[in-house]
Amino acid sequence: MKRIVWMGIGVAIGVIAFRKITEAQASIGPEGLNRAVGRMADGLFDFADAVRSGMHQREEDLRAALGIDEAGAGRR
Question: pTM above 0.85?
Fold first, then answer.
């Protein structure tokens, strides 16, 4: 009976290890690298958009506080 339990545990560990190795190989290959770079680029673009939006909002707040209108902003 002990041998059957240990054999079952060994099989379970083998299956888990096989899945992890397969997953690691998929992420190391060209498709995995492309996915990783794509996710990083998307995150970078989202961050840049958030920064631009924040800058625009802050500029509007400063213009309102200083009493500068938008029509006069184009005349530099």
Answer: no
